Amino acid sequence: MDLIEVLLIILSVVIFMEVISMLLRKALKVEKVKTGFRYYKINELHGKVSWGLRILNLVSFIIIFFYFSNTPNPQFYILIGIIVGLSIIEIVVNAFFEWKHSSTPRRAIVSMGEAFIILIAVAVVIQFDLLNPVINS
Predict the structure, then answer these.
(1) HSE of 137, CA atoms in CB hemisphere, 13 A
(2) Residue 53 in contact with residue 90, Cβ under 8 Å?
(3) Which pTM does this prediction carry?
(4) Of 98, 92, 88, nearest to 31 (Cα)?
(5) What gap in Å lies between CA 33 and CA 30, rounded to an integer?
(6) Residue 80 CB-density burial (10 A; 0-12 exposed, 13-18 middle, 19+ buried)
(7) Cα(137)–Cα(135) distance, rounded to whole angstroms?
(8) Cβ neighbours of residue 20 under 8 Å, at least 6 residues apart?
(9) How far is CA 21 from CA 8, 16, 105, 118, in A?
(10) Chain segment 98-118, per-residue pLDDT in tens
């Protein structure tokens, strides 16, 4: 497996996630939140919690990066799990604020669906050892 195959796997996961998200939005009659790379907050508390999580994610990523760069035989799946775990926490916090404080609480179901798809994708990559040939080459 080379880099092209890994990129195809990532692309297929992203496409699958977008299709499922679109189907959930249509079924629940929820409009897409157009955030792109812009900052998205529901209220001031959500903004503060979200920024706190982003800073925690950044600090954690820097610590993990330096730890793994100095480890002789790093376990990259642990690194991937930690990064995805921190991202899932951020999605769950967004879903909580969408559920409790938003005018469209059904949007939280779409957010949790996206988090679930990310978890399944990571589980498939780890279970079938899809990155091992790329990491060991």
Answers:
(1) 9
(2) yes
(3) 0.77
(4) 98
(5) 9
(6) middle
(7) 6
(8) 113, 114, 117
(9) 20, 8, 15, 12
(10) 999 988 899 899 889 888 888
Q: Which amino acid is at 53?
A: L
CB 117 within 8 A of CB 16: yes
Amino acid at 68: F
Q: Measuring CA to CA, how many Å separate 29 from each of 103, 104, 105?
A: 13, 10, 11
The pLDDT tens digits of the residues spanning 24-57 come to 999 999 888 766 656 678 899 998 998 999 899 8
Domain ranges, residue 21: 3-135
Radius of gyration of the chain (CA): 17
Query: What's the angle, vertex CA 26, arms to CA 95 and CA 11, rounded to 5?
Result: 75
Write phi, then psi, for 115 (nearest 5 degrees).
-65, -40
Burial (0-12, 13-18, 19+ Cβ within 10 Å), 26: exposed
